[in-house]
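Quick one - first record:
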Amino acid sequence: MTQFPNRQSSPTESRRRLRELMAGSVPVELPGPYDATSAQMLARIGFQALWGGGYVGGASRLGVADVNLMSMTEQVEFCASLVGATGLPVVADADNGYGESLQVARAVQLFERAGVAGLVIEDQASPKHCAFYARLPLNLVTKDEIVAKIKTAVDARTDESLMIWARTDALPAVGSPAEALDRAHACVDAGADAVFTPSASLDDLAEIARGWGRDQPLCMSSFNFPELTLDRVKEIGFSARLHPLPAVLAALRAVELVYTELFERGSFGTATQGSMKSVDFEKLIGADVAEAMDEGYREMTKGQATPA
């Protein structure tokens, strides 16, 4: 009998797969789905891992900006939906660990139980927000504080294959590659398995990579560099790249076009002509597998008397 859903993998298997990908010669692309179905589409396209971003998670679940309104449990549930829908390794955005050491330890345990392959803890002070919100102040905890959080996260995991990533926002906060490198080095010394360094400057990222000198991989975001090629990412010296927004932006534009036409004309005309066919949508979400499974099990119970 075909297993439903037919996209399951064990958490440990998924975590080992992420580690293999990160150790490969080609930088890992981590597209950010906005829900379970978009995650399934990314898996069908062929992507090998996913980014469970807090930015898009808060937008899709709550309709709010990335200003520390998404709770830990809401983010865990969002990332768990991506894991369950695809079986792919999911790297979860765990913000700043949602507090101090005790909160960090609980966050690691919850994300681990949700099946994610990795989670990212950053050095922003609360209340935190997207690093690229230029008008909001970006404050960092001390280096010792982020080191303590990373050490807590490493100690709190029960599956050592779970990747703990450190994120430093020193580049957007203070514009200092030296400070970012110092914090990143301290985090890997504390046990971090990878480091994510958001930046709006390719020159700063290249300086980080030149001074890295460690085995742990570096990760960047495509947020400010939509036309950057994967070859260039590798040339700069990074092993992974996040894509937090393209999926949700494309989806919202499509919704706007289709429903504006309905609102203004009273019917769907040209705007839906390029949309996915409903039969393809049913295949994407596994309706055919569910029907086959249901039919098979109903065949097994035919002719059995119903208990009084």
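second record:
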Amino acid sequence: MAKRHKIDTRPTIAQIASVAGVSIPTVSKVLNGRLDVSPATRERIEQIIEEYGFVRNRAAQALGKGQSGLIDLIVPRLDDDYFFPIIQGAELAFKETGIRLVLSSTHYTEDEEFAWIETVTDRSTDGVLLVLPSDEAIQRLSKQKFPFVVIHNQGGLPPNIPSVTITSWEGGFAATNHLIALGHRRIAYIGKNVPAMDAIERFAGYRTALEVASIPLEPDLQQEGKFTANDGYRATRALMALPSPPTAIFAGNDHHAIGVYRALYELGIAIPQQVSVIGFDNLAYTELMNPALTTVHVPRLELGRVAASMLLKLIAGEALDMPLMTLPTRFLERESCAPANITCSA
């Protein structure tokens, strides 16, 4: 008599795979009638399924499919704290369904994106969430007729691509307008060359606010820089070396703002008495900076949650009410800005 394994309740795909000594995708293939499983393995899995009375887990019941119960979330980097709440939001949405999240990173390289896309064509995952994918990656995945949702994007998206983004232009406009209202006229921006659409839009919001206020757009005050603290530092040193340096700096993101703070500290320039600073994203540490950083809040938890909810609908074969979801940013005034006429000695 075959030895019975202890399973307290009707088993999930993962438990069937564990008892059979095979991978979860292999069990999924058997459940879906795939032929690329050896007869002996198929027979063993089917015997276990019959023995324990397998029923599809909550995710499969909700989606109407007996697939792998896995969803891939692809981010540019796993060590960037910007992405943590996005991951958390997606995990919260999937938690109630029993789906498990598989994380991967591309390190901002198209080669790694393309290599990853090749691995999902065997249907070992039920769907994909892509954070900041390249246009080429989106085009390749679209040809596979595979459920996916984009969170942020590098360039222009066709209207039929399911995606979630933010009101980045409005955030950039609000941040710059706040500095203008404080009397600043020499307002610098860092990150004008970042290719992501959200970054392009916040830079456009900065430029529009200056134009509306009839403040000249000075090229010297518009600095390049990837979204890193080091580039924020380098750009700030260059700005403060100008014959007429800025009285305010709009950092393209909060990582930039760290570099701005460091450069101004080394130069003996007080924030906000001599230079006001605004960031973008509202990363967790910004409230702990000295002074607390004025910034633009990005609803990153909601980005992950909404994108995951959209993906669940697509996997279930349901139509989306809106393929493009835009979530609002929110300006957060803290302690790093002051009126332009406030000065103190270095």
